[in-house]
Design goal:
eight-stranded antiparallel barrel, single chain, 1 helix
Length: 205
């Protein structure tokens, strides 16, 4: 009888240990965090540029600008956004806009339009104000317009992008319509370093 009780005690002890180990493994599996990118934009206290939309406000290097409208662009399976900005104070600079794309990392560039009517993307290199830029991309894309952009709800555009030294960029765009191709618009861009842009969502957020 004592032997039987001893065997039962061992069996019960084994069952209890097995149940406890199983619960421990389950608890560990459910509480362990999934691997995450430590530099993910959505985790930034300054906001995620990928969520920008008309009505939002951005602050960069002490200047605040309103997002008046946005273009959502698509070329093949690739998408990016352009946001047209209106400063709170008149600066005398040309029209400005912010481009946001992932290629594959997030890249945000602040652009200022230039009035150089004689500048076109007809050459592989273009020099502006003593800086030489090299063409990296040229293509056409479809766009969908949101807010105030001065364009129709949908359409197509042609672009040519140039890269320069120290994060500088040069971009050409023209919009395509029933009357043919529009004139080239030229803008100079500067890379916005991570963490220097603060986003204030609009009232509709």
């Amino acid at each position: 009888m004592k032997l039987l009780l001893a065997v039962l005690a061992v069996v019960i002890l084994a069952i209890v240990i097995a149940v406890l180990l199983r619960r421990r493994r389950t608890a560990t599996a459910t509480t362990a965090p999934a691997p995450r990118d430590p530099f993910a934009p959505e985790d930034s206290a300054a906001g995620d540029p990928r969520t920008l939309k008309a009505g939002d406000m951005v602050e960069y290097l002490g200047e605040r600008l309103f997002v008046r409208g946005s273009l959502r662009l698509t070329e093949g399976g690739y998408t990016w956004s352009e946001h047209f900005l209106d400063p709170m104070e008149v600066t005398g600079e040309g029209r400005r806009w912010l481009s946001v794309e992932e290629d594959p990392t997030l890249e945000v560039v602040l652009w200022t339009e230039r009035a150089d009517a004689d500048l076109t993307p007809s050459r592989a290199t273009v020099t502006v104000e003593g800086v030489t830029y090299h063409r990296t991309e040229h293509g056409t894309a479809s766009y969908r317009s949101e807010g105030t952009t001065g364009l129709g709800a949908t359409g197509r555009m042609e672009y040519a992008d140039y890269d320069g030294p120290r994060g500088r960029s040069l971009a050409f765009e023209r919009f395509l319509g029933d009357q043919g191709r529009g004139t080239w618009e030229c803008s100079l861009g500067e890379r916005v370093p991570e963490g220097t842009l603060t986003i204030y969502p609009g009232s509709g957020a």
